[in-house]
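Troubleshooting entry. The earlier prediction with coenzyme A gave an output that would not parse, so I re-checked the input for stray whitespace and re-submitted. Clean input:
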Amino acid sequence: MDPDITFRYEPVPEDCAAVRAIVESTGFFNPAEIEIAVELVEDCLEFGEASEYYFVFAERDGAVAGYTCYGPIDGTEGSFDLYWIAVDHGRRSQGLGRVLMRETEGIVRAAGGRRIYAETSGREQYEPTRCFYERLGFSRETQLRDFYAPGDDKVFYVKAL
Ligand SMILES: CC(C)(COP(=O)(O)OP(=O)(O)OC[C@H]1O[C@@H](n2cnc3c(N)ncnc32)[C@H](O)[C@@H]1OP(=O)(O)O)[C@@H](O)C(=O)NCCC(=O)NCCS
């Protein structure tokens, strides 16, 4: 792990642009998804904890290099959703996603979280993402066929903490 990486947990207004730049850089998300990623930051800035969106930002030299967004799932005891994880394209495959998840899982566990859920696409493009979750100890729980579009399934992963 890069020793110069630091974590930050409170969003600041500049994170809207940083998150937009990171999710765009990945080439994985369509314009509507990019807007949703930014809206989660805006909601947290406006409503704080009431938004139920929480963040871990990984920074290097004052710039955000990757982040997670997660939160408790209403009506459950200790189940959390991982809403988003993205690492700047230029920093992928260097261990940042792994340390971001380790940090996020530690916080979730300390908050009483038992299980963390991640959803992704079953498309070929997301094979590296599915490998990432599996390497980090998530198990493939179930799959909703044609969820996103014909031929584009939704795959659910879960990790017991
Ligand atoms: C998925 C993502 C967050 C992973 O972050 P990362 O920093 O690239 O991943 P890491 O370098 O920490 O890799 C952690 C593990 O995942 C595996 N992995 C990462 N990228 C992989 C790839 N392209 N293919 C196969 N395995 C991969 C690695 O083997 C590694 O395991 P190891 O440490 O045992 O070798 C990042 O690549 C990303 O932002 N992807 C695009 C956006 C995305 O898909 N987000 C999830 C939305 S559903």
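This one parsed fine. Residues 5-115 form a domain with the Aminopeptidase fold (CATH 3.40.630.30).
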